[in-house]
Amino acid sequence: MIKVDIVLAGFGNLGRAFAGLLLEKHHILVKRYGLDLRLRAIFRSCGGLKLKSPAAVGGLLKGKTRPAGKPCPWDPEVRLSASLVRGARGVFVACTTSDGRTGEPGLEHIRLGLSRGWHVVTADKSPLVAGFEELRRSAGKKGLTLGFSAAAGAALPALDVALGSLAGADITAVEGILNGTTNYILTRMREGADFDGALGEAQARGIAEPDPSRDIEGRDTAVKLLLIANAAMGLELRLEEIEIEPMTGVSPEDLLSADKKGEALKYLGRVERNAGKIRAEVKVRAIPPAHPLFAVNGTNKGITFLTDTMGAVTVTGGQSDPRGAAAALLKDIINIYRR
Amino acid sequence: MIKVDIVLAGFGNLGRAFAGLLLEKHHILVKRYGLDLRLRAIFRSCGGLKLKSPAAVGGLLKGKTRPAGKPCPWDPEVRLSASLVRGARGVFVACTTSDGRTGEPGLEHIRLGLSRGWHVVTADKSPLVAGFEELRRSAGKKGLTLGFSAAAGAALPALDVALGSLAGADITAVEGILNGTTNYILTRMREGADFDGALGEAQARGIAEPDPSRDIEGRDTAVKLLLIANAAMGLELRLEEIEIEPMTGVSPEDLLSADKKGEALKYLGRVERNAGKIRAEVKVRAIPPAHPLFAVNGTNKGITFLTDTMGAVTVTGGQSDPRGAAAALLKDIINIYRR
Predict the structure, then answer these.
(1) How many CB atoms lie within 10 A of CB A240?
(2) What ipTM was estimated for this complex?
(3) Mean pLDDT along residues B30-47
(4) Nearest chain B Cα to A167, which residue?
(5) Are residues A69 and A106 in the same domain?
(6) Domain containing A75 — which CATH number?
(7) pLDDT averaged over chain B?
(8) Is there a single domain that holds both residue B216 and residue B116?
(9) The whole model's pTM is what?
(10) What is the pLDDT of residue B67?
(11) Which of A191, A268, B46, B333 is buried deepest, with most CB atoms within 10 A?
C-alpha cells in the first residue's frame, strides 16, 4: 500500500468533482492499485483549508462551500506554501483557471509544487502554454511527473495514446476536433440551424460559456493542439506559430457545398511535419466520410495521429464535463504510481 | 542508457518485421528513450541463431532466411533455454503461432522466459488463452511485465487505453470490431458484393487466409475480445463462456433491412457487466450512425469502452499488417523501461 498526500488548488466545478471522485473511488483505488490517496488541504483564492479526515470533504461537498450561518471555512492564514511540505513527494493537483497570457497564478503554484519535490497534475492550460518547457525540465530533473491529461483533452485520452500507445512510432501529423462547443454548433448548423441560433442553444444548454470567444475564435482548440502536438511530436511550437481562423466565418453556402459532396465541416486543429517543416493551423475544413473524425458530432471530441509504423490511430469520445476531467486528473495520479 | 538483450522466437512475417524495425529504429530509441535494444538470438522450429552484431540481422533480412548455396543458418544445437540466461532481465519476444487448444509451443516458451527472469512481450494469442492467469501471476510475482498488445489488437491500442487511459474508471462494457477480414467482407457486401465474392476478393488481396474459418466463424474476434475484456474489466472469462455466432449467416435481407434504417451491420465482440452478471458474445449486429464504430469500414478495427466516469471512449485504426504488429511489440518493450 502506498500512501499519497494530495493538495488541491481550485474548488470550482472541477475541484469539487475531483474531491468527490477521490471519496467515491477511495475503496477501489486501494483494492485495485494499492493506492491510498489522502486529500490533505484545499486552496481557493480566498484562503485554504486543512482536512483532518476524508469525511471533512464530504461535508464540504454536500453543502455550499460556505454553509449559511456558519463562518467561512477558508482561512487566508492557511497557505499553499506551508502545505507543500518539502520532499513529501505527494501530488499537487491544480484546478485553478489562470490568466491566458501570464499563466498566473497557476504557473507560480506549479513551480512551487515541483520545487518542493511534489508531482504535479494539472487541468489548468495557461501555465503550460506560458512555461511548458521550463516546467517539464524542472520536473524531469527531479524525477517528478508533470501530468496534464486533464488540460489536453480531459477524458479523451490524447496524451496517453501519443506518448504510451504510439511509443517508438514517429508521429508525422496530429489532427483533432478538440472543442465541444464549436463542434456542437457545426453539428446543429448542418441540421439546419443558423450560427446565432446554434450558439444560443449551446449557451442555453450550458455547453458554451456566456462569453464564447475563446471557443469560436479558436484559442481553446489552438491551446490544446499546442500541448498535445508538442508532447506527441517532440516540438517546441509556440501559440503565435499556429495559424488560427475563427469558425465564425462559416456560411450556409459552405455547409451546402460540403453537404452536396457528402462531406462534413469540422473545426480542426492540425499540426503536420512535412520534409522537416512544421505547419500548424486551426480552421474549418470539409472532410469526407472516410475521414476517421467524420462521425464525431455534437459535443464529442476526437483526435487522429498519423504515424510511420502504426498507420492512423484515432481516439474519440470521453465525457466532457467536470466529472470526466476529474477522472483524467485521477488517471494521471494513478499512472504515476502504477509501475 | 539502458542496454536490453532481446531474444526472439518466430521468424515468419511478423518476426522478420520486428527484427527489421529494431534495426530501423535503433538510433531513435537510443536518442528518445535512452534504450539500446540488442537482438541476441532468434529461434525458429528448425533451430536457433546467435547474433554477433545487429548487422547480422540485416543480412538475414535482405536475403532469404537460407541464401541459395549456403548452409542453413539455423542450428538445432542453439537452444532457447540456453539463450534466456537466468536473471538477465532482458525481453523475450514471442512471435510464434501456437496451437489454438494447447497454446503450445508458445506457452512453454513464455513460462521458460518468465521463470528465467525475463520480461515477455508476445503476439501469440493461444498461450494467453490457454494460460493467462498462470502467466500473469508468474510475471507479477517476479516483478516482470507480460506485454501482449500485439496479440490484442496490434497497432490498435486497445489494452493501453483500457489499462492506462481509463485507470481509475470502471469499465462496464467493451465492444469492438476486432477482425479486419470480416469487417472487409461486410463492407464489400454493403457495397453490393455477395458473401462468396467478398471473401474471394479478400483472399485475392491477401486480407483473408486461404482457410478463413478462424475469422468468419468468430474465433479470432472471440480470442481478442477475451484478452482485452479480461484485462480491462478484471474478469477471468473463458473462451467457452462467449456466445459465438459465425458471420456466415448474414443474408442480403439483413443488409437491406439495416440499410433501410440507415444502420450498418458489424461483426461485434461485446462483453458487458449488468447487475453483476457478465454477458459475452460475438455476433453480427446492426448499429446506428451515432454509434462510434459505425464508420469503421474495410480492414479497419475499432473498440469502444463504456465507463462510469469518462463516458464512452473509442479507439479506431492502427495499421493491420506485420509492420503494425511489430510496432506494437516494440511499444510494449519501450513501455517496460519508460518509467
Answers:
(1) 8
(2) 0.95
(3) 95
(4) B331
(5) yes
(6) 3.40.50.720
(7) 93
(8) no
(9) 0.95
(10) 56
(11) B333
